[in-house]
């Protein structure tokens, strides 16, 4: 790999030096394509043939600072995402105007605005009550997939159908979840998460009552499909809500609470439902669910207001004169040309040796708008900015791509980085616009008055630089009306009762069908496709076992009742908790060690090393579960293997999510929808169509040995993914499928 000009480190050259330690040297000339030969391999990973600037790679400069590479190659977003994606911050001296915690020890990320309506400025009790209310709702929703697992035989007897037919209630429920995620995710982006949560809760109650009073099996199946649609927001939206209401340093603990509740629901709800089935019958499980969800919906209505807040960089006020507090962080000069007559006055220029304060520049040109960008190159030269000015086909601010070494949870989509100074040209939204507006961002921009920082002069213009790095400037007018966030910025704090309003209108101008189709386009990205396969299997095999517990434990050798069958879920609950706790820690240790041996360069493909323990635990667990059940071993033996499978699947799901997000952080919101869609449709639905009948015909030994073989074959694709993953990332950047749609 070629030396990185910013890092000053050169990984050891050579082929498969998997543990070859890189050597450091002082930075000198940048090795651009064509000026030097790039090494073919590093740590067993093929480098791109043309550039070292591959989005997703991160140069580790210090314990508290990383330098993502490939920002100049990262594609611009053309629509919003459900997860607010942080942006890149270069090293900068601490500034006293940065907002900090009350003890002054932690700089707040993202930086809150002046407005008391900013969710980051809400009282702690308000934000935590929203988390707990949402977490309880997710706990119930997460456990709905195997709700009837212990009562399959009871349902089969009442409706006079086979147990394999009853398993369709699980597969079609998952199909509903997959379809619902594609429906509700873009709806939440366009109209807000609160109306989606409330509508989902109402539909959840209605479908639970529907299932409880079903007169025939067909009615039960259709009710479960719509119940899956109602539950789908549980999978695709809570991580985004957490990112919107908590600062970066607060998220880890809250994410842990959310993950624990969600994981607990998937394993404890079947246990409770088994007790209900044993004492009251299977219909009462849905009545109890309807009652509990009614309570959860009431909590959502009271304590989960709309959390959306537009953090795309934009001027808070339009002024006829430049702002006093705008600064430029590097030399930026735009020359006049035939293509774009955009200029910057000499007073706004300064040398590369040190920044100097200067007012923002405004100039006039018909049909050109230079707005805020969220990503640029490390240093801008006159040639760079001139090229940006001439590129009048750019219509969106650029979303950067960043990556982090320390990510071990599904919410890993959040980065602890902020923006670089940038410049972008936009076409005006109206044909009557005749002004070209040149705006600069800088890490030196002073922040507005905030309850977290010393008092600042009131009434000054400012630019938000800690952003949800989206490509659409949602501060534009929507349908001729002021957008949601812009209207709230200068209003007094909303009261508790004012926040109970269920719907706030449209939040941005994105097209619904475009936002809905983007997660499906990600299947053309090799890293996302691999992650979707591994994630689908990691969750799907647990569902397959859940569908088979009634056949094995109730109809087979063990002759358990419903309650005893439900108690089996204690094993995967324990295994899942251990797997979730271990996965992040072990993965972080491995990738940091590999990055050090790679001269300080972290590649997302380092995460794929975790596929080895995933393969060992899941294959042994699956084969052992089926084999021991077939031989009639003591019930504890297959139950322990069930826990081993859950442990390995937790490793697999965490690894697939972190690898996917590390590779394409700017598409994290869409990627989570992609993973859940594939898990629900391509695995949950497909296997439910035949696995129970297959189990009855051939026995658990044959079925689970073949499932273990399938798992092993799929995980073997990790090897080419590791070798060619970096080239595949750069290939997708060049093709740019997501933004061509």
UniProtKB/TrEMBL annotation:
<feature type="compositionally biased region" description="Low complexity">
    <location>
        <begin position="339"/>
        <end position="348"/>
    </location>
</feature>
<keyword id="KW-1133">Transmembrane helix</keyword>
<dbReference type="InterPro" id="IPR011701">
    <property type="entry name" value="MFS"/>
</dbReference>
<dbReference type="GO" id="GO:0022857">
    <property type="term" value="F:transmembrane transporter activity"/>
</dbReference>
<keyword id="KW-0813">Transport</keyword>
<dbReference type="GO" id="GO:0005886">
    <property type="term" value="C:plasma membrane"/>
</dbReference>
<feature type="transmembrane region" description="Helical">
    <location>
        <begin position="225"/>
        <end position="248"/>
    </location>
</feature>
<feature type="transmembrane region" description="Helical">
    <location>
        <begin position="284"/>
        <end position="309"/>
    </location>
</feature>
<dbReference type="InterPro" id="IPR036259">
    <property type="entry name" value="MFS_trans_sf"/>
</dbReference>
<feature type="region of interest" description="Disordered">
    <location>
        <begin position="314"/>
        <end position="364"/>
    </location>
</feature>
<dbReference type="Pfam" id="PF07690">
    <property type="entry name" value="MFS_1"/>
</dbReference>
<feature type="region of interest" description="Disordered">
    <location>
        <begin position="1"/>
        <end position="42"/>
    </location>
</feature>
<protein>
    <submittedName>
        <fullName>Major facilitator superfamily domain-containing protein</fullName>
    </submittedName>
</protein>
<feature type="transmembrane region" description="Helical">
    <location>
        <begin position="196"/>
        <end position="213"/>
    </location>
</feature>
<feature type="transmembrane region" description="Helical">
    <location>
        <begin position="164"/>
        <end position="184"/>
    </location>
</feature>
<feature type="transmembrane region" description="Helical">
    <location>
        <begin position="703"/>
        <end position="725"/>
    </location>
</feature>
<feature type="region of interest" description="Disordered">
    <location>
        <begin position="444"/>
        <end position="474"/>
    </location>
</feature>
<keyword id="KW-0812">Transmembrane</keyword>
<keyword id="KW-0472">Membrane</keyword>
<feature type="transmembrane region" description="Helical">
    <location>
        <begin position="635"/>
        <end position="659"/>
    </location>
</feature>
<feature type="transmembrane region" description="Helical">
    <location>
        <begin position="130"/>
        <end position="152"/>
    </location>
</feature>
<feature type="transmembrane region" description="Helical">
    <location>
        <begin position="520"/>
        <end position="546"/>
    </location>
</feature>
<feature type="transmembrane region" description="Helical">
    <location>
        <begin position="671"/>
        <end position="691"/>
    </location>
</feature>
<feature type="region of interest" description="Disordered">
    <location>
        <begin position="71"/>
        <end position="121"/>
    </location>
</feature>
<feature type="transmembrane region" description="Helical">
    <location>
        <begin position="255"/>
        <end position="278"/>
    </location>
</feature>
<dbReference type="InterPro" id="IPR020846">
    <property type="entry name" value="MFS_dom"/>
</dbReference>
<feature type="transmembrane region" description="Helical">
    <location>
        <begin position="608"/>
        <end position="629"/>
    </location>
</feature>
<feature type="domain" description="Major facilitator superfamily (MFS) profile">
    <location>
        <begin position="130"/>
        <end position="726"/>
    </location>
</feature>
<feature type="transmembrane region" description="Helical">
    <location>
        <begin position="566"/>
        <end position="587"/>
    </location>
</feature>
